Amino acid sequence: MNKVILMGRLTRDPEVRYSQGEPPLAIARYTLAVDRRFNRNGNDDATADFISCVAFGKSGEFAERYLHKGTKIAVSGRIQTGSYTNRDGVKVYTTEVVVEDQEFAESKNSSGGDGGYAGNSGFSGSGRPAPAPMAAGDGFMNIPDGIDEELPFN
pTM of the entire structure? Predict the structure, then answer.
């Protein structure tokens, strides 16, 4: 099984190109900075891995329209490896995540930019809006009317 799930921030705006076929296919490339935490000498140190991602078709169009540098997203997809020979005749090996689904991982207000939308996930890679619960003044989410009967506690 080849499945990967990542959460991180875009290091720059996606680079989007379109294929020359009919109809043209969007191909978006971006890099995610994904936190890596480790414990060294009792200290919780953090660093990041920079992971190349590529999204095709509707997911590529979504990336072009809504994703920007600094946006925190969750991505699922598969790892793909490849190789090519560069201009100097040296063989270069590549590894990237082919995006199958992408969605916002924080609200627009949390990121302080225009990379997200209200709610926890905002929009999914399919472009469907997700419900946006409103936060009360105390920082907790309000429960919509009619939901309280379904809760296992009151």
Answer: 0.67
